[in-house]
Each structure stands twice: as structure tokens, then as C-alpha cells.
Fold each of these.
Amino acid sequence: MKPAQKVVWEDRPARYRRPLIQAIAVALVSVIFIGLILIMGIRDLRTIDRTLMGFLENRGQGVINVVERLAQENINTLVQGQQQRHDDTFVPLAEEAFSPQRLLIRALVNIGREVDTNWKADRLSENTLRKMVAEKNLWMIAVFDKGGRAVFQSRSLPSSLAGSQGAEGVAIEDFARLGRDGKVGFIALRRRDGSGTIIIALDPKGARYWGLKVAIEKAIGELGAGQRQNLLYLVIMDRQGKVLGSTGQGPQTWRPGEFHLPELLDGRRRIESRKGAWQGKNILDMAIPVTLNNRIEGVARIGLDRSRSDSVLRENERNMLVFMAFIVAITLLAMGLLYFNQNRHMERLVEITRQLEKAERLSALGQLAAGVAHEIRNPLNAISMASQRLKREYLPDDPDKVRDFGILTGVIRDEIRRLNGIIEEFLTFSKSRRLELREYSVVEVLQKIVNLVREEAVTKGIALETRWGEDPLVIPMDVDKLQQAMLNFIKNAMESISGAGTVLVSAGLQSRERLVITVSDTGCGMTPEEVERIFNPEYTTKEKGLGLGMTLAHEIIRGHGGEIRVKSEAGAGTTVEVILPTESRKS
């Protein structure tokens, strides 16, 4: 069984704990204010993020613009070289003009080396050549032996190319002759030992592909350190998805759904970017159309390291969080101060209200007491005298009625006495605040009360114990009223005990300024509701009387400048502590 909860009552006002409307309103306003700051902070962070991403996009676009410019220059150089080769007039070209052409010839020579290696390893076939032609955007590859017979060829050899394989003094690293058959250009590569020749032919589509590839690879190689800063990879692919040039270890293929390639190739999107990770680094992956000769030739995929932009964003996030924490701390502090201040004023207001209500009740009781005393006492005296005369002079002659007559007259007498006691209680209550203080011993007052009620306690089987030292504990008091108050406390303690029990009365100094009188009993105790109401004038648990004894005692103690504390537990008794000042209050 759950034990009863101990209840502690003090005559001082209990702390006002109900939530204040003002504090709730401030809390709501603060929550809204913090929410607005949070929303604004998030919007600012998103704006900063978009700005940083825009900066990286502009940087990526700038890199592609440089590549486009350099690649366009390389393409123009290639075109110029081809025009001069087939023109009747000859204009010497600068060294820079030969560079793209050499790169193109070198790329085709590398293909010839690969074919030659497979030929030597006996891994060459016409299917192998067709596959290589398709992969490398060539028109034809043909292999001839020492006697000029075609050993392998990806397609039939045009008659206009006959005899090209017989050129002398050509090493495999150099080109023999660049010829034309309509719109098909070719180079012939002879082995150093003269055991055979390899011919690689390009149609306009292949020539365009290899011209773009060489121009873009050379342009990427010419990127300066400024353009390569934060550049993790750059891959340029044509419309068919073949790599035209790259730098760094970037993705060489497009996964479906990564970017909107048709819109980029059609020019409907200038740039497309997304955040991602690559080789353990946070990057901004971008796809940008590459325009050469006023035509979109492909798409560049570029990855920029965004660690610096992320650090800037994190710094702003930290600043926002610190600012938010500062605002929240100020708000909570303001709410706490407001709640404390409002709570303190509310406590005072409640205390004043309670005192006013109590003063009104006591004033009404005092006025009622004076009226009752004036209006009832005289009739009561007349009734008392009449009942005494009836009992003395008008006894019935019938012996059987004498007993009933005595009972009736006794009831009248007892009720008159009870009414008179009520009147006296009212009169005492109305005069309880008018105190006449003088120095007197608390021990003598308590001992007198104990001697007065000891016989009654013995009759009821109650042990009445006292505990105080030899110190008389002299304080300023109204002796009669303080004695009346303490008598009420002790008699209530005795009345709470049914059967055997103990009442302990003690007194002692709590400090130099305060003295404590304690009355403890082992009675029935009180519920929390009873503890809260025991000092209300309108509350009583007695069948007879008005229940003004505790209210009267409370007013007397308050009149002395003291306090009352009640500690009670249902079924375990009650303890009443009366705290009195040891010195008179200064008016």
C-alpha cells in the first residue's frame, strides 16, 4: 500500500506556481522570433551556398572558355596547314603552326604502331582492323607485305592509293605521304626493315574527329596553373560520347540521368551542375557545352574541389549557430527574469488579496460578535432565570414526570450555557488583535497550560510530555492571549488522539531572534485539504462550536509577529511549530 504523503503547511503564502499569461505570451513571441531568425539564417545559408556554387560554376565556365579558345586556335592552325599543303604557293609556317599537325600525325602513327605490334604478334585480322576503325573513327586501315600485296584491310583499297606503299626511306615513326582521293586523306607507314607498309585513311568525318581531338588535347595541355587550381578532372566528349581530351582521373563515361545531355547539346542549357563526391573529396560536378567553329561539338565534364567553399559555408553555419545560441540565451534569460519578476509581484498581490479577504471576514465576525453579544445575552439571561425558577417552583406532582422534567430543564440549561460560550468566543475573537505586550517567560505559560490539561489527558490515556531547559525563554507577549492560543493547539492535539497516545510540548531558541514552540501528537493526522483549511474561520470538524479556536490562535500568533508551520501525515500525527520573535517589532 502506498504510504500517505506528508503535507507541510505554512501560514506564509505558498509560492505562486501557476503559469503566468505574460510569461507564456513572451515565450510564444520568443519562439516566433527565434523561428524567424532561424528561417532567415537558413535562407542566408542557402543564398551563400548558391553564391559559392555560382562562383565555382563561373570558374568552370572560364576553364572551358580557355580550352575553347586554345582549341579553336589549334583547329585554325590545322586548317591553314592543310590549305597550304594543297596550294600552289608556299608560305613558311611558324613552329607553333606545325605543333597541331605533328600531334595529329603522331596520333595516327601511334595507331600504326599498334597495328604493327598486333601484326608481329600474329594477332591481326580483318575483323580486328574493322573493330579498330570503328573505335578510332578511321575510314580504313590496310596492311601490305614486302611485295605490295594486301595482307589485311578493313575495306577494299582504292586504286588511287596503289604505289604509296613503295615509298623509300620512311621509318615507322614518320609519315610517308599525305595524299587525297576525293575527300579521303591517308598516310602510309613503312616498317624500318622494309618488310611491309601500313596505310591509315581518314574520311571528312574521321578527319574532323581527329582534328578536334588533337586540338582539344593540345588546348588542355596548355592550361596554366591558374586554370588548374581546384581542378580535379576535365573530360571533353563529342556527341557520340567518345573522349576528345581529358586531364585528371575523371569519369570517362556518362551514367544515365546524370545530366540532361540533349538539352546541353541543343544549347538549351548553358551549364548544369550537381554536388557530389569523387575519390574522397567533395566536388561540384559540371557539364558544359563545348563550342568550336560556332557549333556545339560536345560536352565538357569538369570537377572542381569545393572544400574551400564548404569551409566558408561551415564557418557561416557556425556563426549562425553561435548567433542563434546567443539569441536563445538572451531570450531565456529575459523570460526567466520576467517570470521571476511577475511571479514575485503576483505573490505579493495574492498575499495582499488573502489578507484583505481575511481582514474582511474578521471584521465581519467582529461586528457580528458585538451585535450577537448585545442582542442575545439579555434574552439568554432571562431564559436562564426562567428555567431555574421552573425547576425550583414548578416541579410536577406526578413522580413519573419529575425525571423527564429534570432532563428537559437540564437540556435548556446546557444549551443556554453553549450559546453563552459561543458569544464569548465571538467576543474573544473580535478582541484578539488588541495585544498588550510585556516580557514574560514562555516556559511558565506552557507549564501552566500543561498543568491545566494534565488531568484531562490522564483521563483519556494520553501521555503529556514536555521538553525545555532551565532557560525561562523570556520574550515580549500578551500572556493571556498567547496562553489561549497555545491552549487551542494542545487541546486540538489531544482531541486528534483516539485512545492511548502522546502529546509532546517543547520550546527552544532557533536563533538569537527566533524562538520555536512545538506541539506534536500521535493522532490521526490530516489530509492535504484539511491542512490547507484548518485556519479558515468557516471551516470546522467539530459537531459543536463554530471552529474559531484555530483561527483565533492564528490571529494571536500573527499579532505577535510570529509564524505557524503545520506538518501532518494522515495516520501518523501532526506537528505544529509556532515561531515567535524574541524582540518586539519596531513600529
Note: Residues 94-159+170-211 form a domain with the Profilin-like fold (CATH 3.40.1840.10).
Amino acid sequence: MRRLRLPALDDRLSTLLILLLAATLGAASGILSRVDNVLFDIGQKLFVRPAPPDIVIVAIDEESLSKLGRWPWSRRLHAALIDRLAADGARVIGVDLVFAEPYTADPPADALLAESIRRAGRVVLPVLLESTRVNGQVLETLPLPQFIEAAAALGRVHVELDEDGIARGIYLWEGVGAPAWPHFAQAVLATAGELPAGLAATPPAAGVPQPFALVRRDPRRIVFLGPPGHVRSLSYAQVLTGDFPPGLFRDKIVLVGATAAGMGDLLPTPVSGLRQPMPGVEFNANVIDAMRGGRLIREAPALVVIAANALLALVPLLWLPRVSPLRGLLASGLWFLGVMALAILLPRAVHLWLPLAGALAAALLAYPVWSWRRLEFASRFLDHELKRLRHELVAVDAQAGGRLASLPSDPLAARIQQVQAASRRLRHLQNERRETLAFISHDIRAPLASALMQVDEMGESAARLRAPLARALALAEDFLRTSRAEMLDPARFTEIDLTAVLHQAVDDAWSAAKQRGVTLTRRLPDEPMWLRGDFGLLHRAVLNLLLNAVRFAPPGSEVEIALDVTPDTFEVHVTDHGPGIAEAAQGRLFERFSPGSGITRPDGTGLGLYFVRVVAEKHGGRIAVASRPGKTRFTLTIMAIRRPES
């Protein structure tokens, strides 16, 4: 008997492939992004840096509201504040307040504020990117023209939250249609003369025009200083009344913004969470500090991320084959903690965002996968030895007089025989299911059709019964067609003209298209296209595609059917210009009873496109869809088994 080779190399290779797959999938798919974000947040909370003394926030807080009255305040107050800050020698004043509309309560106050901004000469105003509704059009809200003319610079204060609702970073450039606006922090630092050389002062090339879309460039994550309230802050009312030491603001970056609850942006951040959000003005202070100190975190390229995760995933194979199970478990646990520590420290240490959740998942799986592979080998080895023992016992018993009945049976072989018997039984049940389904569908269809005829004869008194009966009849007919398609034997195919099938389907869909105001356009060859198939099933499959296209095509549009011929296939294309199909729904569009995520009518049976798929597969082909808003194309591919030309 052949000796079983110890498959140490095979076990290492299989473990290597499994760990590589886990790491690359985790890194490339983004399914572990929440884990990466949690590790990033831990790194931000572990390290707190002192706030820079030259960044000061003038806060519109609860104390200011109680002293100066309800918001909005007269812009005379803002003008007086800017004058006081400029007189005290502030290097730059970043006003995180949007003056997008005239102050109708005191019109001269706008001119007074514009003059104060012009006189200070170092005032930066915000551009607000906002949407009027959820998933609505993003709009750019700019200050009034007189304020734009007087300001030293404009900067964007838009912050995009991550998928878990936490603000961790910014884009250096954003804008509607083109990345025209720098971040507010860039504008402040450029006005102060402290913008690092590596950050461009002018917007990047717009590239392909994208009107009405939010265009972004250069994402960065932030190294935060500390929790909310960490940056030095003075009350707006206190500064306005001059209640501060002279020279307090000299050569300082002063940010004016709201911190009171219910005013301005309150952002959940890695250092605050959801319970204690950070005011937007303090968020900007953190961005200014990180930007000025070169501590903005760049995102590593996707290939670098995948490669780093893959390499780290293979490290456990250096010790797992060489140590005992207990030592392997301990070493794998330490490696898991090491990868976690690397993911936490790397962004702060080298200012590079390198998600390592894929490597972390591989480190977690390394010991179980290796143990499984070794147990698998042990199982194979024991089965091999059992089989060898059985042969030896048979030989011994044969020599001793043939006492084969006393030999133990092979349990593995018994299990295999049971699986084979179950498989045969399953195939038998499958055939019975198809026959039963076809019988039931046919048996239900006849009384439903009869009931519909009687409803039509009864007039308006029974009109409400027509819709449910019609739906039940359609369901029965779809069941019947699907059953016939599933039980179809390709050996019984006959030669048919595919061009005639397509023309017949278009003719049958013409009435429905006319009712919808849709034009059916044909791009079909004049000559016959012969293949072996079933005329009725192919006709119904194409008709299903046409009726679906007509159903969702806007009135006044057209639905096109075309036939492309290749040496090996016929490709039938049905194209409409409807709303399109969501990408998430396309993968299960051709499954049995799939609702299509809302692309079918409420009265659909969920079998139409599944029927098309079954017919395509029976003809050796396939069905596919390509969709975007405004255009959907279904492609039915059939193997081109043509009749030889005479």
C-alpha cells in the first residue's frame, strides 16, 4: 500500500493562502473599516498634547448669550469685536460665522461690519457647504459680496463624518463642480503666513467637469490635541467689553465661533465621542495646529495597504510550524496585540493612515487555521492507517481460514455510502418536485381562468375580484412556465430562427408599449439566424425583458432591442432609459422570487427574470444586466449553434 506522505508543506501553503485571503479581503473590501476607526480613535485618546499658546478661541457661549441677548446679534457687535481684536494685535482673525444674508433689523450694521473687516485686513470668513435635505443637492453658501471683498481670504468649514458618525478628517480642497475652496484652516494659515510649503495655496486642477457634484481632493486625518475644551477659550462678551489683559491676542491666531449648545456645529470626534461633541470652531483649531505642525495624516495608497496587510498576515507562519501548541497560542496572542499596537501608534508616529484590520483578522485566525490544518492532517493520517489495518486484517484472516465476518467495518466508507444514497434520493426528490410543481401550476391555472371569465360576465359588481384573480392566474402561469423551463431537455431542441423569435416578441409587446407611450425600436438583421432551441421559451424570455423595459421606460422614450452576432454567440440586448437599478439589487435580480429591490411592480410574481435566467442556461447561455440612472441594458447571450449553410 502507498505510504501517506507527511504534508507539512501542503499545510503551510493552505494556511498561507487562507491568511492571505483574510488579510487582503479585509484590507481591500473595507468591511473591517469600523475596526480600523476604533483603533485610530484609541490612538487619539491615549496621547494628549498641550494646546498651542498662540491659538485662542473667542467663544459665543452660554455666558455671552445671557449677557448680550438672543441670537442673532447685531453685526455692530461683530464689528466692535473685530476692531478690538485687531487693535490688540491679532495676527489673523478667523470668523467661523456665516454672514450670507443682509441683517434686515439694522441694515447699516452690514456696512459697518464690512468696514471693520477691511480695516483689520487679516480676517478670514467661511464658505459653508450644506444640503437643504437628506441626500439633496449640496450648495455653497458664501458671505455677502461686501464681506467677500473686505475679507483677506475665504475658507471652507465643511466636515464630512465617517460611516460611524465620527469626524476624523478633512479634505484640503472641496467645492461644488470643482475643488475650488481650501479648508478654513488653510485660509487662516495662509493669511498668517504660516502655511507649510507642502500644502498648495492654489486649488488643484478641476479635471473632468462635474456640475452640481461635490468634488473633493486630498483627504487628510487629524492628530487631535485633546478632548473638547482643551484649546484656550475666552467668552465673546468678555472680549467685547475689553475684560482681558492688553496684548493677550498679540501675534495670535484668533478663531471666533459658537460653542453654546444648539448653535453651530457640534461634532463627535475620536477624543469626544457622541456624549461630549466638539464645537466646530475648536475642531478648526485642531486642524490648524495639525496642519501647521505637519501632523495631518495622509492615506496610504490602496496597493500599499493590501501589501502591508498581506505581509503582516504571514508572520505567524515563522513560528507556528516550529513550536508546541501552547507556545504557538501564546505567540499568536502576543502577535495580535503587537499588530493592534502598530495600528494604534502608526498614525501618530509617522502621520500615515495604514488600516491594518485585515492583518489583525489574519493574526486572530492564524492559530485556529493552523490548528485546523494540523487536525485535518491527523484525521487523514488516522483514516489511512485504519484502511491499512483493515487490509492487513483481511490478509491475516484469509490465511487463517477466511474469517472475514469478524473484521471491523470501515466507518468512513459507510458514511460515503450513506452520502451517495442520500444524493441519489435527493435527485429523485428533485425530479418529483418539478413534476409536482408543474402539475399544481397547471391544475390551479384552469379554475382561475374560468373564474376570471365568470367575473367578466358578472359586470361591475364583481370588478374588485378581477385584480386578485388576475394576479393569481399570472402567478400560476409563471409557475407553469418556470416548471417547463426547468424540466426542459436540451436534447429535444429543434432548429429555430432567432430573428423570427425576436420580431414575434416585439410584435407581442407593441400594445403594452403603445399604452405607455413608449416606442419600440428594432436593430435586427434581415437574414435568419438559426440555432437549436425552444421557440416558445425563448419568445417568452425576450417578451419578459421587453415588457419589463416598457414598464419602467419614461413615456415618450424608446426601448431598443438589438441582436449582435459573434462567431460563438448571439447577444440579444434590450435597452431602456428608465430610472435604473441599484447596484446592490443587481446581484440578486435573477434569483427566484427576488423582488428586485423595488424595480418590479407590487403585483409582480418575482419569477419573470428568474425564468429568463433558466431559459438562458438551458440554451447554454446567460443573462446579464448593466444599469445606471437613465439607462438599463439586459443582455441575453445564447450559444450560436447554427445550421450549416447549404
Note: The chain has four domains: 8-32+303-377, 45-295, 411-484, 491-639.
Amino acid sequence: MAVSLEDERGASLAEVALEPEPGGYFSSLVDRATAGMLYRFRLGDGAERFPDPASRFQPFGPHGPSQIVDASAFSWNDASWTGVSIERQVLYEMHVGTFTEEGTWLSAIEQLPALADLGITTIEMMPVAEFAGRHGWGYDGVDLFAPSHLYGVPDDMRRFVDTAHRHGIAVILDVVYNHLGPDGNFLRQFAPAYFSSRYGTEWGEAINYDDDAAPVREFMSANAAYWIAEFHLDGLRLDATQQMFDASATHVLADIARRARAAAPERSIILVAENEPQDVRLLRPHEEGGFGFDALWNDDFHHAAFVAVTGHREAYYKDYFGTPQEWLSLAKWGFLYQGQWYSWQKGRRGTPTRGLAPCRFITFLENHDQIANTPTGRGERTHQSASPGIYRALTALWLLSPGTPMFFQGQEFASSSPFLYFADHGGPLGAAVRAGRAQFMSQFHSTASRALVDELPDPADEATFRRCKLRHAERQANTAAVALHRDLLRLRREDPVFRDARPGWMDGAILSDRAFVMRWFASDPRGPWTEELAAGDRLVVVNLGTDLYLRSAPEPLLAPPAGTTWEILWSSDDPAYGGAGTAPLETEEGWRIPGQATVVLSARRV
């Protein structure tokens, strides 16, 4: 094996032989190598040369030469930054290519003050590893150590993280360790053992983690540590961990978690996983046989919300109803499915969450997958599918619930930009991608029964990508939406009851098929009771249906603490958010609970 040094035009300058080492590695000291220099590897006696699978930058894309990067040249200004923990976080999922019109790290920096003002504490960046084409979601990455050249140079990404820290915002990165993209992946040329024939994924060959796979495990765990150490990232979100197959005594996910944390000895980081089966083993500590992650995405929350908003129960939404009981169970238990029969998959789904804090479940009304996969295929935002009242009420229910909330970019100002599936592949691969997209969307009967499947936006079309770019001028135009989210986040952050909500300190009751209450106790309801402590309780009244009148209310949670009466602390129907205003809920004639509204009540002494 040899490494070829090249000039900026790709012409060879020199070739240096690499010497074999144990374990299948090759190495050599290249004393003339400098930052910015281009290089490729020549394998065996063949004439073809390949980029470095561990390249730090691919300035001409995954098929071009690799570039040497000096990570120590960047001057960081975040020495006082100590990292973050999962408690009290508010996440914001971002795709850097569509977050601004320019689609670069430097242009994204300009929007950080607005996110900080809103109350965002952590950005969850969609994957940025180098991928083929002019645009893509990032889940087809092939050079896992190289930030995509489409968004700027590596130091631009460092500058984004450094500036985010200055604004008090952490940054975690979505990484994909379950498969690699179909175009520009040259790992097989270096060693076929990177991939496994024992398993298959929905997106291509599975990564080999359990068949004489020590170098493969090292490659992925080193990648996790690399992002934390060299880019000062505050954690990772691992995509589709259920398809990281490993029968080893120690699962590779546990290895990755340990290496990532060891890369930040002076900082605390957050490790989040997507896991469709909802296996809480990922959240258990290593000493209990777990993998040591901090949080899991909670699809149950989203699916219940989608059904509540649209009324549609098809495909993977068929096992949800959007009912008051589901919302109360979500608040108490995190996941709805913890081992029950799940008809969509014709099997049991989920694991028990007992003993896990609510903040360890990431809740959302939108994310990249769920917007792009709306049954119409048009990438509608949630606020475009719901009535204004229901959307405001549901937003309040989401942001005042105990899980860790995650926004999707633009949600905070009711963005009109869709988020569609886009991937720039041409030829037979592009045709296969389009066919696969149509097949996936056909699971929705409302889509399959129309010609809409044939009219799905072409993922490779530049126009599909450009339609998804945010228009930040809407932030100034849609001030009511911004105020709704900002005020709710302030209430969540500053109100002593919502801020310090603890497991077991909430109870709820169903009032109708669309209305319910959740009472948040200011002190442990199982402990000693005093009028003074009880006066701090909060009552959240949610009605996703029509106005509800209760002449009698035989429900103890509706009773105000002794010596007090309920008064409105906050309402989703406030005129500041586009509502009509809210009259007192409890009168001498009973309770009048407004439809399509969430109202927060606090106790006032009389």
C-alpha cells in the first residue's frame, strides 16, 4: 500500500510506501506533509487511487482527494464552557443546508442570537459527514470524519460551535453508524470485513460489529470521540441504533458511549439515541448491563399528537388514538408502548421505563422524518395540518409536559417552508431512490389511493431542495407564533413547579373524550400536606374538542387548595398568540372549559 501526495489539481507530487502493522493496518511517517495538502491511497499494485476513509476533509466531494487538516490551528474561545447534562434542555433539530438561504455554517451563525432569545439550549445538528451530490439529508454519509464541503471548511464548523457556546447553546451531532451511503463509500476496497453478510439494514449493507470486527469497532468509536474532542461538540445523537447489529459480549453502543465521554474529560456531554423498538437498555448504566446513553427519541409522543391533530390512523399511526388517556400516560411513563402488542408490526414493542426520569425521553411535534413523511408527501408542517386553536393547545401540552422538548428548525416561527426528502443521486441509483420513496409512501392508504405517489417531489431535483430553505423574515412576520413558543419556554424554565417537575408529582384525570386535566404538585403528594405547600400547585386544563360545560365536577384534582381559588396563569387562547381571550374557568355555575385551548391555573388566596 502507498499514499500519494498531490497538488491542488490532483497531479501526483510524490508517493510514499506504507509499512504493514499487526491487525491489518499500514503506516509511515510522511515528513513533507503539511496542512492543506491533498492525498490518496493506492491499494496493492492497482493503478486506482482512493480517498482516505478517515479523511478530515474532502474539498471536492467523496470521489476527490483527501486534504490534510490541522485541527490545532483553530483558536477556541470556550475554555470556560463545561458542557451540558440532559436535565432542563430544549433541543432544536437543524439541517445546516436548509437552515439559511446560503446553507453554510457561517450564515447559520447569524441566527444563533434568535435561538438563544427563544430559549433553545441545545442544537441537534443533522448529519454533516461528507456525502455524494449537491444536496442531501446527510444520512448517506460516506466519509465519517469529514464535515461536508457543501457547508464550508472544517474550521467554519468549529466557529459555529464556538459561537454557539458563547450564546449559551450546546451543539450535538447526529451520526450514522448503522450503514454508509451508496455513492462514494470506498471502505470495502480497504477491507471487506467492514461490512456484514449476516445482517441487512433498510438502507444497505450492515456494518460488521461482531465478526472479528475489532478494527471496525475502533473506527466507529474513534469517530465518536473525534467529534467531541476536535470540534468541541457537546454530544451525539445516534441514528437507528436498532440496526447496529452486535452479538458481542459488549455491545458496540456501550463502547461508543465510553469513548465519547472519555474524549471530554473536562466537560459533560449528552448522548441521545433513536431506537424504534424503544429499548431502554440504552439508557441503563453500564454496570446494569446498559449502554450508558442519556435520552431516547419518543416517537409515541409524536404519533399520538399526529392522530390528535389530523384524525388519521393509518400505517404506523394505526396503534394510536390521540386520546386524553394517552397524554396522561405519556406524561407519567414516557413511552406508551412498553411491551404491549403492536398491531402495525404484528409483535410486541417497547420496554418498561420504570425508574427513568422524564427528561430522558425526547418529545417533539415535528422532526425531519415526520414532516417529510406526512401522508400527502408534501412535507407540511404541523401548524398547517391543525386548526390554530388545536395547534396552540397542543404546543402548550408539549412544552409543559415533563419530557425534553425538541423543535424542528422554523417551527418556532410557523415556517411555511416544507421539509421534503432530497438526495442528489443520478442514473440508476437516482431511479432506485425515487422508486423506494414511492414504495415507502404507499403504506399510507390516503396517498396510495391517489396519483400523488407518482407526483412526489423528485429527491434529486434542485428545486425540491431549495423549497425546504427557511425564510427567516417570517420570524418577524409571525410574531404571535414566536411569542407563543418563547412564553411557554419561559414558563417551563422559570415557574418553580414546571421547572422542578419530578416523577410522581403529577396526576391527571379525564373530563371527556377530548378534555383532561393534569395537576402538578408543588411538593411530594405522598408526603406531609400543608395548605402553604398545596397553594403552589399548578392545574393544566386541556381541551382539544369543543367547549365543555361541567355543572358538577366530581373530580378531586379540580379542587383548589384550601383557602384559595384558581386563577388563570397562562392561556393558549391569549390574544397575543392569535386567540380570543379566556374567561375564568370556574364560576358559581360550574366549570366552563374552552374548546381547542390549554389553560394553566395557579392558586390565589381568598
Note: Residues 2-50 form one domain.
Amino acid sequence: MPLSNHRPDPFTHAKRKREFRPTDGKHIPREQVIKHIDSTHAGTNLRLVPRIIRAPKKVRILAEKAGLDKRQTLKKQEQLVSRLVSKWVDHMISGMKEKELIAHNISKREERKLWLQFYNNFIDQFFLKKDSHITNKNGKLIFATKILNDPAVREERNAIITEMDQAISYTLPPKYIIERRDKKQKYSLRAWSLIRSGVNPEENLENEVQRILRRRYSRIGRPYTQEQVIQAKAVQICLAASIYADILERTKGENWISAYGLGMMQMHSVIEKRPRIEHEIRNLDKVEIKD
């Protein structure tokens, strides 16, 4: 059976790459923090599993109290599950190094490959198929699993993983954007113009996105539908991020795709307040776009 291609959402992945900063201002590598947690909290991995299993229901209850709609709830569920599964895999890799089941000097490429294998296996073989619970028997933690038979729970978990798989599309340039940029040189010329003016690329991207969100679309005779306006704004935001990527590529040598994703992530706190636009951005490759 081929390995699935599940990935933690880009926001979870970005948080995992950050370093921890204690009160004295010194940086502590993430691996050292995980090692410390492993050595001081016995059974952390075991306790994480039922937390992951309970996460969707917990978020659903809190979301209902907060008045979130189904789409917003699903997004929160996905983010929590992604974060907890990533934490579980981090602990697993750290524990295997501690027990010398894998080499301490394993290359980053091989460790990343192993990390994704664990992540995918947990999603496919456990989260989507099984349920679990932990009991305390005579002072010992007993971990038990059973086949997931509840159709409603199975449907909810499948929806969460689908949301997880789609989240990465938010940080990738849609094919339409690539094709439009290839046909029209004005976007490349715009980037050069901004570079010559000495503009701050982050500030320019934020100002441009705010302008797009405020813009009113109108025409005489045949008004734009709400769906057309949402799609137009989604396209313009992606184009703004592509110009941001042009600037970083030409001034700092950044990989263009990575720079595009970085720009979209930086603007997520603004865009997520417009859930229909964010949803449209994620699905631009699935719809027909007319110039």
C-alpha cells in the first residue's frame, strides 16, 4: 500500500521550526526542549494519543459555545489535530534517538523522511481507523485500542484530514496565477519598480492585501455577483503574494515558491477573517477562472 502524502498544515510546520526563547533571552533548540520534556514527563507519548482522539469533540463543543460555523470549526479541529500529531512524532523521533534505535547523527533529509512516515502512518493506520483510551490499573497506565465503528466520528475525522490536506494549497501558487504571470509581464515589471523604489516588501504586501480587501467591484448594467467578487479578490491577493516572492527572489535569493508561501502565511491573520476568501484561495485550482 503506497504511503499517503499527508502533511501538517503550514502554520503548524512553521511553529515547529521556531526556536524556544527563555526569559534570559538565550535560544534553546527545539530538539533540546523535546529531550527535556521526554526526560521529565514519563509516558508523554502514551498520553498524547487519547488527547489526539478527543481533540475533534473537544473543539466541536467549544466551537458551538463560541458560535463558530461548520467550516470554522473544521479548521480549528484540523489545526489542533495537526499540532498534536506533530508533537507525538517529535517525541517519537527523540525517543528513538535516546534509545539508539536511530543514529543521533542522522541527516536532516533522512530524519524528515522518517518524520513524514510516522506522521502518515499515525493518520492512516490510527486516527482514521481506531479509537483509544488509557486506564490506570494498579498504578500502571494501560493503553487500549479498538476499531472505530461510529460512522459519524469516522466521517468527522475524514473531513478533518481532508481539511489538513487542503491547507497546504493555501501556501502554493495556483496554476492560474503562474499562467497569468507568464502571459503578462506587468507583474514582473511591477516587482522591479518596487525594488528600485526601496520599498519594504512585507509592508507593501500588507498594504496591498488591505487595499484589495477594501476594494469595491462594480460595473454598469450587469453587477458582479458576490461569488465573482470573492474570486476576484482571491486572485488579486495571490498575485500580490507573487510580486512579494519576486522581490525576495531578486533581492535575497529566496526560492520563489517558498517566498510565495511565506507571504501568504504572513497575511493569514488578515485573510482568515474573511473565511470565504480564504476558502476560495485554497480552491482556485479547482474552479474555472475568467479574466
Note: Residues 19-25, 37-44 have pLDDT under 50 and may be disordered.
